Amino acid sequence: MEHGEHPTRLEELRERIGQLVRSVPDFPQPGIVFRDLSGVFADADGLQDMASAIIAEVPSEVELIAGLDARGFIVGATVAARLGVGFVPVRKAGKLPPPTRSQTYDLEYGTATFEVRDNAVKAGQRVLIVDDLLATGGTARAAGSLLRQCGAQLLGYSFLVELTGLAGRESLVDDPDAGGVPVHSVLTLPA
Ligand SMILES: O=P(O)(O)OC[C@H]1O[C@H](OP(=O)(O)OP(=O)(O)O)[C@H](O)[C@@H]1O
Ligand SMILES: Nc1ncnc2[nH]cnc12
């Protein structure tokens, strides 16, 4: 069961949100089209539309939203507040005081480490991971793994934007450890 939204209304939301996304060629490096979502966050209606569009596909049994450092905090906390559930930040290493749990993951160049507060999740708690953008999926997969290690029942992943052509969705859906959980995105844009 999901929270639901009429398909026509969802299309309107997508249209309005899409107009607030700015595409910046060659940032942060040549060949990358940066999808700047700050215009969505800065717009009073955009922020509400973003939350409404994500919530439309959130399973109704969700108990906790996990947002990914840093832009995922904006999206995740907004969604959590609208749903009336709690929020747990999945932080880049070195920001949270101990005790924490951590998970290292691969980036295009090198590695990074995520941390969450130990006991951030109760055993079996139903958690949805929310982030601003899905690219290769490495970031979200690491967060999923970390939260499951903490005892979460992972309900799925929700993104504001999904970049196509990078197989990020497949890497989450086919992740044998995640058990085929659903992946939702409001907008799909080419990488
Ligand atoms: O699917 P992936 O290839 O792993 O990439 C997606 C991640 O990249 C960006 O985060 P970034 O690490 O740039 O952090 P920020 O939110 O702090 O800017 C974005 O916010 C996602 O979290
Ligand atoms: N193209 C892109 N635009 C914005 N954020 C990103 N994170 C990874 N790829 C990105």
UniProtKB/TrEMBL annotation:
<dbReference type="GO" id="GO:0044209">
    <property type="term" value="P:AMP salvage"/>
</dbReference>
<comment type="similarity">
    <text>Belongs to the purine/pyrimidine phosphoribosyltransferase family.</text>
</comment>
<comment type="pathway">
    <text>Purine metabolism; AMP biosynthesis via salvage pathway; AMP from adenine: step 1/1.</text>
</comment>
<dbReference type="GO" id="GO:0003999">
    <property type="term" value="F:adenine phosphoribosyltransferase activity"/>
</dbReference>
<dbReference type="GO" id="GO:0016208">
    <property type="term" value="F:AMP binding"/>
</dbReference>
<keyword id="KW-0963">Cytoplasm</keyword>
<dbReference type="GO" id="GO:0006168">
    <property type="term" value="P:adenine salvage"/>
</dbReference>
<keyword id="KW-0808">Transferase</keyword>
<keyword id="KW-0328">Glycosyltransferase</keyword>
<dbReference type="GO" id="GO:0005737">
    <property type="term" value="C:cytoplasm"/>
</dbReference>
<protein>
    <recommendedName>
        <fullName>Adenine phosphoribosyltransferase</fullName>
        <ecNumber>2.4.2.7</ecNumber>
    </recommendedName>
</protein>
<dbReference type="InterPro" id="IPR005764">
    <property type="entry name" value="Ade_phspho_trans"/>
</dbReference>
<comment type="subunit">
    <text>Homodimer.</text>
</comment>
<comment type="function">
    <text>Catalyzes a salvage reaction resulting in the formation of AMP, that is energically less costly than de novo synthesis.</text>
</comment>
<dbReference type="InterPro" id="IPR050054">
    <property type="entry name" value="UPRTase/APRTase"/>
</dbReference>
<dbReference type="GO" id="GO:0002055">
    <property type="term" value="F:adenine binding"/>
</dbReference>
<dbReference type="InterPro" id="IPR000836">
    <property type="entry name" value="PRTase_dom"/>
</dbReference>
<keyword id="KW-0660">Purine salvage</keyword>
<dbReference type="InterPro" id="IPR029057">
    <property type="entry name" value="PRTase-like"/>
</dbReference>
<dbReference type="GO" id="GO:0006166">
    <property type="term" value="P:purine ribonucleoside salvage"/>
</dbReference>
<feature type="domain" description="Phosphoribosyltransferase">
    <location>
        <begin position="46"/>
        <end position="157"/>
    </location>
</feature>
<dbReference type="Pfam" id="PF00156">
    <property type="entry name" value="Pribosyltran"/>
</dbReference>
